[in-house]
């Protein structure tokens, strides 16, 4: 178990190092997750111990929301002052996300239909 938690942290560290070294605009932990994913694909699956560590981390994920909740409560007055702007931003970003997702699904759906219509011999 210790090996696998160390592996997860090592991938995160490697991601942070790559981010800083190359000035990438992607967060280091995301790069680390990609590195871990590539390693798991190369290895051919998820080892049982890594699965247990992942399940343990996910079962305690709610603890990670405590600092965010404290921050919200600490700045509740500021949030109240900016409630209209925050609300507009949330609604606008949600609508934009839905629209972009629908557009991507439409494009991918057309592409999938074209691929399915060609057949194995290009008919």
TrEMBL record:
Q: Highest taxon of the source? A: Bacteria
Q: Where are the transmembrane segments?
A: 28-46, 58-78, 84-105
Any idea where this protein resides? Cell membrane
Q: Does the keyword Membrane apply?
A: yes
Which keywords belong to this entry? Cell membrane, Membrane, Transmembrane, Transmembrane helix
Q: Please report the record's description of how this protein sits within the membrane.
A: Multi-pass membrane protein
- Family matches, as InterPro entries: LrgA/CidA
Protein name listed in UniProt: CidA/LrgA family protein
């Amino acid at each position: 178990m210790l090996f696998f938690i160390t592996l997860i942290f090592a991938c995160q560290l490697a991601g942070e190092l790559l981010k800083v070294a190359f000035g990438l605009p992607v967060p280091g932990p995301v790069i680390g997750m990609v590195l871990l994913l590539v390693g798991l694909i190369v290895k051919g699956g998820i080892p049982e111990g890594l699965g247990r560590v992942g399940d343990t981390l996910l079962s305690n994920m709610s603890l990670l929301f405590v600092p965010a909740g404290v921050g919200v409560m600490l700045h509740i007055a500021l949030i109240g002052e900016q409630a209209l702007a925050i609300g507009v931003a949330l609604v606008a970003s949600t609508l934009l996300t839905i629209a972009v997702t629908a557009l991507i699904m439409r494009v991918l759906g057309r592409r999938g239909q074209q691929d399915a219509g060609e057949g194995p011999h290009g008919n």
